[in-house]
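Q: My labmate handed me this sequence with no annotations at all. I'd like to see what the chain might look like in three dimensions before we decide whether it's worth expressing. Could you predict it?
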Amino acid sequence: MILALRALGVGDLATAVPALRALRVAYPDQQLVLAAPAWLGPLVELVGGVDRLLPTAGLDRLGQPAGRVEVAVNLHGRGPRSHRLLAAVRPDRMFAFANAEASHADGPEWDDDEHEVSRWCRLLWGYGIPADPADLDLRRPPSSGATGEVTVLHPGSKEPAKRWPAGRYATLARELTGRGHRVVLTGSAAERAVVADIAYRAGLPAAAVLAGRTDLAQLAALVAGARLVVSGDTGVAHLATGYRTPSVVLFGPVSPTRWGPPPERRRHLALWAGARAWPAWDGVGDHPTMVALGVDEVLAAVDEVERAVRVDRAVAA
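A: Here is what I predict for the chain of 317 residues:
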């Protein structure tokens, strides 16, 4: 079997899709097993090509695969912990970035500034396996049951520095509603109170608050059929890329050159103010790089991606 480790979140899995597809092509007769958190199962199914999920949360423990591991592939990090975790299953070979501490010297060198998608493709190229960074599309999930296209605003993030001010999401929701968008707000159950407050301030009905009411499969279906997605640098943004759903992604301290949508896709636009000089953030309030992004700038970006969609449709007609 081929065992790939990616024990992280939604965006992390989405950025590893080209590498996983490349492994499927390179080893068509081998079982491809992905070590990742169990809750990502619905998204793993939408990647395609993965035969089995080996539930793995973080790097504390890796279950013993059923059978001999011909190749273990570290799509998780640079090591040494992730390298050692894979080495413990005694694979015949291991594909991983070079790490002397883990006694792994034959892999490519790590590049901190590399885009996350390109990083894992380059790893495989280093072992003679072609991988296409543009191969990001996800399988279409079953319909979410929503009638008509919705505009998805996703205010939350596990990292506070990546959150755009809630008041601006409320203003944006109100402005988009005035333009004819049917706005819904997504997020985790823990974010429901904040999201509900945004909806109240925007004059949206309670039914527009979907935070805590969608599982991963339902969220993917919602994004796949959406008119537009506006979010921070989080998993929902990567779902929008995977479904070619028009999106505006608001980046904070981390550059979109590392995690942003493909710049050649005109219907996805990343906004970032992080290139400017900013004072150190003490973790209180909103991060200055997010505060620097105004509602008017986001609305202009919405106009731009919607123009790109119209152009794409005209060319295809």
